[in-house]
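A further point concerns the way the authors explain their paired sequence and structure data. For illustration, here is how one protein appears when written out as sequence plus structure tokens:
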Amino acid sequence: MQATYQRWIEGQLAGRDLVMERSEIVSLFVKTFPEATLLDIKLIDDEIRTNLYQTHKRFEIDDFILCKCKKVTQSTVKIHLPNAKTLEELKACTQAGTGCGKCVPDLESLLASHKPKPLRWHGEAHSVWGERVQTSLDLWNKRIDKYPPLKVKRFDQGQVVVEVDGGLNSDQEWDLSTDLSAYLAEGFPEPLVVFLDFAHSSAKS
């Protein structure tokens, strides 16, 4: 490959944000250097392919055109991911996927990958532990009738907020908290820290 061609392609690659397809850059090369031979063109094409699709440290692969109809790059889509909870919202923000629709699977994949991973406690998601605590509370509700019905409001790293559906006096609150903590100390990797929520009940003094 001639040194002139090499410098030209290096300049093109260094200055581009990948908004052009490889074939478009090759076409630009042919127009710029009409005297180039087929071998030169092939070498240039190989150089472009290597830089655009293999050298990740030099070029972020995020910047390739994801939606060809609307000329939307993947990096543009990623910028809007925090503001889009659904595919339709993402399409509205970026216009990607509003043409032929071929890029929709890619949009769905990006949307799914951006969803926050569930918080975990002892290797399992908080939602799983919340369901297990609720199962225990369902048994509690059937067996013990001196307290109002209980249900899980929130589980976070071994701490569980239990909603009490009814009013209790201060002594009953203390007894419930003590009894429930002892009850939930079994069947879990470690004793749970229990908080009672009376926000929706009128406690009696």
